Amino acid sequence: MGSQTSQLRPVPKGKAATQERILAAATELFMERGYEKTTVSDVAERGSVSRATVFWHFSDKGGLFREAFSRVLAPFRESLERDFHEFPPAERLQAQLAMSGQFAQDHRAEIAAFVRWAIESPVFRDSVIATLLDLNQRFAGVLTQTLAEIEPASGDPKQLATGLMLAFDANLLLSIFDSENARFAERDAAIQALAKLISARSGD
């Protein structure tokens, strides 16, 4: 989704191209080294520009990080816009989890960077954590809405969504330390199986 959107964007030129090059370099370095271990000189060298050019486009390193963080977050926010309402509720739940699982696998490096920034950066820790919790809650809300259509009135869609999110989040964290795709797929299949059990129970 994020890659398809970026392919449709016009190629920047002139000032916009220079800013894009700086931002791309900064994003790579912040992901590789973290905020504190990245300098403006590093960004200038990676982006093939002068330090003065970096400061001309971005007021300071903090502003550059905020722009880079927003850049990395964009595909995550875009992914939440797809709600699969064209599917019946049970199929929608499977599709939402499958899409998110694949998305997480495709963006493992970004997720690892989020965790690193949240742990290592005293300057941006609180804002990074708040943003990640917001994304997490938004996805939980999407699942809760779908489960409310699946689960009978006696059930608790929010509680079930929380359980699925715990399994989903655990798989995300494990994927940072375990890069084996097959094991990620096994854990993801277990989450899908749990969702199917929930859907099957609603038919009892």
What does this structure look like?
The chain has 204 residues and is mainly alpha-helical. It folds into two domains: 2-68, Arc Repressor Mutant, subunit A (Orthogonal Bundle); 80-201, no CATH class. The protein has ten helices and no strands. It has helices spanning 2-8, 14-33, 40-47, 51-57, 61-79, 89-106, 108-120, 125-150, 157-177, 181-201. The two termini are 36 Å apart.
Q: What does the secondary structure layout of this molecule look like, with pairings?
A:
Layout: H1 2-8, H2 14-33, H3 40-47, H4 51-57, H5 61-79, H6 89-106, H7 108-120, H8 125-150, H9 157-177, H10 181-201
Helix pairs in contact: 2-3, 2-5, 3-4, 6-8, 6-10, 7-8, 7-9, 8-9, 9-10
What is the ordering of alpha helices and beta strands? HHHHHHHHHH
Helical content (DSSP H or I, runs of 4+): over 70%
Q: Residue-averaged pLDDT, rounded?
A: 88
N-C termini distance: 36 Å
Strand content: under 5%
Q: pLDDT below 50 for ≥5 consecutive residues: which ranges?
A: 1-9
Tell me the Rg in angstroms: 20 Å
Shape: elongated
Q: What structural category characterises the helix and strand content?
A: mainly alpha
Number of helices: 10
Largest sheet: none
Q: Structurally, how many domains make up the residues?
A: 2
- Number of strand segments: 0
